[in-house]
Amino acid sequence: MSAEAAVDVELKDVRRAFGATQALRGVSLAVHAGEVYGLVGPDGAGKTTSIRLMAGLLLPDAGQVRTLSEDPAAPRSHVRESLGLVPQRNTLYGDLSVEENLRFFARLFALSKEDFAERRARLLDITRLGRFTDRRADALSGGMYKKLALACALLHRPRVLLLDEPTNGVDPVSRRELWELLYGLVHEGMTLIVSTPYMDEAARCHRVGLLYAGELIAQGAPRELTRAHGVAASDFEAVFLALVEKHTGGRAA
Ligand SMILES: Nc1ncnc2c1ncn2[C@@H]1O[C@H](COP(=O)(O)OP(=O)(O)OP(=O)(O)O)[C@@H](O)[C@H]1O
Ligand SMILES: [Mg+2]
Questions:
Q1: Among residues 185, 210, 212, 213, which one has the least CA distance to residue 199?
Q2: 151 partner at 20 to 30 Å CA-CA among 113, 140, 190, 203?
Q3: Which DSSP helix (H) or strand (E) runs through 194?
Q4: What's the rounded Cα separation, in Å, for the pair 163 and 195?
């Protein structure tokens, strides 16, 4: 990653509360073009809130959110046209088939017939869903369902893809396949922001931001973080636990 790479997504001292819950307590981070950036943290850390802010689906209480140099929540923002989003929870139409879901999202993005035909073929190919186009989304395996959600979010060729826990509930083989697919897309120039509670997935990212209870407690390349803590590169979990311990002064459960 070159130092001059453009910043695609930026949070500056962002705060967001839901009632009495401080979901984000002043988070600042910058994601560069072409990067795989991992938002890593346990349940309730603020990953989904961060992603929703980046997509313009939520407003911050304080601080600034910039996505592709715009305020993604501004009424006339065109950012959504360049953004792909796969939310954490099921977002497909379960009683529609693979084919029907793809067609539905193509209409949402106002894809031309030709464009859709080309994208459909390519996405069915890379997700290997081609044999299952007639299958209802509800009847797909967990891994296939995630791949279909991904395919639907990629129809309009987003420059930035936001994935909220894309491999949750996916078997190890499908997880690896999903990651290979994602690397392929990044290789073609896409920027990827992915949230995960899994430490082994953190190691797959170019850089990670470690979120804990609404705060970014560390940021950097996984290997730099493991080296700084004197643990094996594969032992990202040890780094996370050490950072949480340091951050909370041992108060964390
Ligand atoms: N709409 C909401 N209303 C009330 N509280 C919310 C809402 N959205 C998030 N929160 C709270 O804000 C905190 C951060 O939530 P968030 O969903 O961002 O966490 P997360 O890191 O995505 O967690 P998970 O891994 O469980 O998905 C949590 O305490 C959560 O309960
Ligand atoms: Mg979440």
A1: 210
A2: 203
A3: strand 191-196
A4: 6
Domains of the chain in sequence order = 7-217 (3.40.50.300)
Cα(197)–Cα(208) distance, integer angstroms: 12
What digits encode the pLDDT tens for the residues 193-222?
999 988 888 889 999 999 999 999 999 999
Q: Distances from the Cα of 129 to the Cαs of 28, 171, 174, 177, in angstroms?
A: 38, 16, 12, 13
Beta pairing, strands 7-18 & 36-40: unpaired
How far apart CA 80 and CA 10 sit, in angstroms, is: 15
* Closest to 155 (Cα-Cα) out of 126, 197, 195: 126
CB-based burial label for 188 (10 Å; 0-12, 13-18, 19+): exposed
Question: How far, in Å, from the CA of 3 to the mean position of ligand 2?
Answer: 30
User: Using one digit for the tens of pLDDT, what is the confidence trace for 116-135?
Assistant: 999 999 999 988 999 999 99
Give me the phi and psi of 102, to 5 degrees please: -60, -45
Give the atom of ligand 1 at the shortest distance from the alpha carbon of 50.
18
3-class DSSP state of 190: coil
* Ligand 1 pocket, CB under 6 A: 18, 21, 23, 41, 43-49, 88, 197
